[in-house]
Design brief:
Blueprint (H helix, E strand, L loop, with lengths): L5 H22 L5 E8 L10 E8 L4 E6 L8 H7 L1
Antiparallel strand pairs: 1-2, 2-3
């Protein structure tokens, strides 16, 4: 298990919040939904690099899942536009 420092955790939270804000801007701020973002890192040499996984759940329980194959710190507005 990899331990994270408080600084790493804060930085990760900042990137997560930034991605959520980009998603909400893309789908419209009036859209009532839950947005979950997590970064996955596989330590197996055969695994691809870090990826950012996103799940959007609407009030009608419709879910949309997608993965952006880059770390959360590298996700930009155009990545969000390409998947939503």
């Amino acid at each position: 298990m990899i331990e994270r420092s408080a600084m790493q955790t804060a930085k990760s939270l900042w990137h997560t919040q930034r991605i959520k804000r980009l998603i909400r801007e893309r789908i419209g701020s009036g859209a009532a939904c839950l947005v979950s973002v997590r970064e996955t890192i596989c330590t197996d040499p055969a695994c691809p690099g870090p990826a950012t996984e996103v799940r959007i759940t609407t009030l009608s329980f419709r879910e949309t899942h997608f993965t952006i194959h880059k770390p959360a710190s590298a996700v930009c507005r155009s990545d969000i536009s390409n998947v939503i």
